[in-house]
Design brief:
35% of the residues lie in helices and 8% in strands. It has 80 residues and is mainly alpha-helical. The protein has a domain of 51 residues. Strands 1-2 form a two-stranded antiparallel sheet. It has three helices and two strands, in the order ααββα.
């Protein structure tokens, strides 16, 4: 948060993050308990997320669509 002006600070609730990530609120709650998922802050009893933290977490997730070349794959087992 550092030098960010409080007047421009936008905090997301767990329902907002649920919509953005297409994860259920229940999953977000479970992951918070397990220390997984996007970084969050507590405001009293309320859980809030900074958009930059959610974006950073999403960027850190593996993405699909890239397959290994034939040379990078594990060798096939030889059947006797």
């Amino acid at each position: 948060m550092g030098n960010q002006d409080v007047g421009t600070l936008l905090l997301l609730g767990e329902h907002d993050v649920s919509r953005v990530t297409d994860l259920s609120v229940k999953t977000l709650r479970k992951w918070r308990h397990l220390g997984r998922g996007p970084r969050f802050i507590k405001v009293g009893r309320a859980v809030r997320y900074l958009p930059a933290d959610v974006a950073a977490w999403l960027d850190s997730r593996p993405s699909g669509g890239e397959s290994l070349s034939r040379d990078e794959r594990e060798p096939e087992a030889v059947h006797a």
